[in-house]
Amino acid sequence: MTLSPSRSLIAAIALSATAFPALAQEVNVYSSRHYDTDDALYQEFTNRTGITVNRIEAKADELIARMQAEGDNSPADVLLTVDVGRASRAEEAGVLQAFSSDVIDARIPPHLRDPDNMWFGVSQRARIIFYAKDRVENPPRTYEELADPKWKDTICIRSGSNIYNLSLLAGLIDVHGEEAAREWAKGVLANMARPPQGGDTDQLRGIVSGECDIAVSNQYYYLRGFEGEVEGLTSGLDNLGFIWPNQGDRGAHVNLSTAAKAAHAPNSDEADKLLEFFTSDFAQAHFAGQNNEYPAVSGVPLDEDTARMGIFIPDTQTSTAVYGDNAAKAQAIFNEIGWN
Ligand SMILES: [Fe+2]
Fold it and tell me: Which residues are involved in binding Fe cation (predicted)?
């Protein structure tokens, strides 16, 4: 179906060595999103444009530091990160440049891109509420309800330094203001079944093991339990219920995987083409499907596993850009109240 990495590499070398050495086009992607299926995505772009894609994969903060160290000589053209909070860190670090395009403006709704055009979403993930069906009859239906004292000693949620929680609280700061957001965080902290520990999967495992009745996690961690055997999770999926939060008002908190143009982008035109390609139906289905996320472009079909959870109302009133804007305030609140 697709070229294996070694064959595509050989093809790329053959093209640059023999065909049009002076005209060989390429684009350099720094990515903190990496999946086995990435080769198919980039091969499709090469098939459509003739542009070869070179990739460097590492954690977002490492890539940002690398781009800073490389400075004007950075070969980076495009940066892919997970979570708007990290895209904002890249913006603050000065390693991005504004990039606007009619294609992107038409394809990506305004709340899923930066108002200053420094990044845009390529896929959406929802941070939602899970519960033990056999122990919780009326689970919380909103993020706000998680702070209700009736849930004392029941909730599992990870650390306050985690970017997913920082973005969640940053969104609540935008919706309710800083004071109310602080009270909410205090309420959730008081309701925790245990001190924050582990990643999102560990919160779901906490329900399976009986340690937690309620957990907060991104939706795709739950779906991974169906796709393959996830220790401590797959065996307990029957008893795991989920709630799309705030379906009666603003909708569920969504975060993004983001794409951005690097500040110095030596292959500027190629970068523009790749960024626009990321909003194509092909790339959208790919980005969403590889991690059981939702496409950023509406109308792109869900992949089979993601569709297992059905559709939901996302919060489209809160701009995802506030996650970066309010990140420092959110971290200050978590630190102050001791949600470590
Ligand atoms: Fe994740």
Answer: 34, 220-221
